[in-house]
Design goal:
The protein is α/β, with parallel strands linked by helices and 452 residues long. The protein has four domains: 9-89, DnaA, N-terminal domain (GMP Synthetase, Chain A, domain 3), CATH 3.30.300.180; 117-271, P-loop containing nucleotide triphosphate hydrolases (Rossmann fold), CATH 3.40.50; 291-343; 355-444, DnaA protein, C-terminal DNA-binding domain (Chromosomal Replication Initiator Protein Dnaa, Chain: A, Orthogonal Bundle). Helices cover 54% and strands 10% of the residues. The chain is built from 20 helices and eight strands. The strands form two sheets. A five-stranded parallel β-sheet has the order 5-6-7-4-8, with helices on both faces. The longest helix is centred in the last third of the chain and has 20 residues, at 431-450. It binds adenosine-5'-diphosphate and magnesium ion. Magnesium ion binds next to helix 6.
């Protein structure tokens, strides 16, 4: 696939990043790739700007082939990757304005300019967290202290944290927004360099502390100790503390009890995965932010595929847009399906299936209606179909035996056990069963994209 001149290296790189973040662990992606930019693309050489020599070396050694493979799927089959350290660009006239690498962040994390309340889409799953965040941003130290926000990966915790930071900064509050990881590193290097006093003064003097991913310090005794004192000093003087975590305080078993109980002093709110309507609204917002019009059915398609990680949702949108651009076509349902095909099979093997989807696929494979399958028919085919449905539910969902029985027309758990044993016993010697299972798996795959 040839590259389109109108696509900047940065746009191609963003599409590649969208895919890379699906393939790498989150810390890995964040540490090594999040701050990279697509600098130039010329003569089959793609130059990626990285923040420091260390990152260049790491990527060169460990991720080159994956990165090249990903870029090749978006550009040319023999493109070569070069990592280049910040500022030393030999192809500076190629660099688009947005591709200029920002200087390394100061000790505390800079606020992401996109993470503001205006761009945060409200939905059922985040309503409480958003409202609480707005409240503490407007009345720091007065209402809930600390505010503790927890939830799964990619659900908007960091976004809310920074949004609070923006408002506080605008009110001239001296804010530190940092991750627990960064806090730890900073503390350890203060220990090493024997300037813990400076470290303590820095944190004591601030007006608000926003600390991301606190789970990171759990079990790190000295850091916990240091954080405990910081917390107390700030809390005693009514300075606002906001903490995010991947789980609620009481589930942080490695954490000292005194910190765990303090975390729950104020308000603890969770962020739940977005429902379909929220996912769709988020996609609309993201497309609008990029100044793009993406057809409604394409957005619906993406929203229906990606369940509970908004970062991945965004990644899918980026990929569809880049793919359509490279093919010089408007993003249609068909292009979207193709753009996301690979990711689909990787991200959602056949897991995450619901009984309804399985029942539908099995009935189609046997040319039965749903009612036939759930009803009282006793012919050989229907019985086998029912048994296969039970077997697949057992294998692909975590429903209990009795729940599976209920789903299949209120049958009892013993019937499900019998079905699973029967299918397992005949998998090897009965080619018909194997063929049917293959066929159903085929029906489940495309289905799992749209019907969830
Ligand atoms: P977390 O910190 O919970 O892992 P992030 O705050 O980093 O998640 O969010 C991941 C991505 O999803 C970010 O780009 C963020 O802007 C976006 N995002 C999350 N929630 C929302 C939302 N409600 N509205 C708009 N964008 C969101
Ligand atoms: Mg985060």
């Amino acid at each position: 696939m040839g590259v389109i001149p109108s696509l900047t290296p940065q746009e191609i790189w963003e599409a590649a990043l969208g895919e890379l973040q699906l393939q790498l662990s989150r810390p890995n992606f964040r540490t090594w790739l999040a701050k990279t930019v697509g600098m130039s693309y010329q003569d089959k050489t793609f130059v990626i700007g990285v923040p420091n020599a260390f990152a260049a070396e790491y990527l060169e050694k460990n991720q080159r082939s994956l990165i090249e493979k990903t870029l090749r799927s978006l550009t040319e089959p023999d493109v070569r990757v070069v990592f280049q350290v910040n500022g030393r660009s030999h192809a500076s006239d190629e660099v688009s304005p947005e591709a200029v690498i920002p200087p390394p962040p100061p000790v505390f994390m800079r606020l992401n300019p996109n993470y503001v309340f205006d761009t945060f889409v409200e939905g059922e799953g985040n309503r409480l967290a958003r409202a609480a965040a707005i409240t503490v941003a407007k009345h720091p130290g007065q209402v809930y202290n600390p505010l503790f926000i927890y939830g799964g990966v990619g659900l908007g915790k960091t976004h809310l944290l920074h949004a609070i930071g923006h408002i506080a900064c605008a009110s001239h509050i001296n804010v530190i927004c940092t991750s627990a990881e960064q806090f730890t590193n900073e503390f350890l290097s203060a220990l090493r360099e024997r300037n813990t006093e400076e470290f303590r003064n820095k944190y004591r003097s601030i007006g608000m502390l926003l600390i991301d991913d606190i789970q990171f310090i759990a079990g790190k005794e000295q850091t916990e100790e240091s954080f405990f004192h910081t917390f107390n000093e700030l809390h005693n003087t009514n300075r606002q503390i906001v903490i995010t975590s991947d789980c609620p305080p009481q589930a942080m078993h490695l954490l000292q009890e005194r910190l765990r109980s303090r975390f729950a002093w104020g308000l603890t709110v969770s962020i739940e995965p977005p429902d379909y309507a929220t996912r769709l609204a988020i996609l609309h917002t993201k497309a609008a932010q990029k100044g793009l019009t993406v057809p409604q059915d394409v957005l619906e398609f993406i929203a229906s595929r990606e369940q509970d990680n908004i970062r991945l949702l965004e990644g899918s949108l980026n990929r569809v847009i880049a793919y359509a651009k490279l093919l010089r076509v408007a993003p249609t349902l068909e292009t979207a399906a193709r753009a996301l095909e690979d990711i689909g099979s990787r991200e959602h093997p056949t897991t995450d299936l619901t009984p309804a989807v399985i029942i539908d696929a099995v009935s189609r494979s046997f040319n039965l209606t749903r009612d036939d399958l759930l009803g009282r028919r006793r012919d050989k085919d229907t019985i086998l179909a029912r048994q296969l449905a039970m077997y697949l539910m057992r294998r692909e969902t975590n429903y209990s035996l009795s729940r599976i029985g209920q789903e299949l027309g209120n049958r009892d758990a013993a019937a499900v056990t019998h079905a699973c044993k029967h299918i397992t016993a005949h998998l090897q010697d009965n080619p018909f069963i194997r063929r049917k299972l293959d066929e159903i798996a085929g029906l489940l795959r495309p289905k799992s994209h749209v019907a969830r």
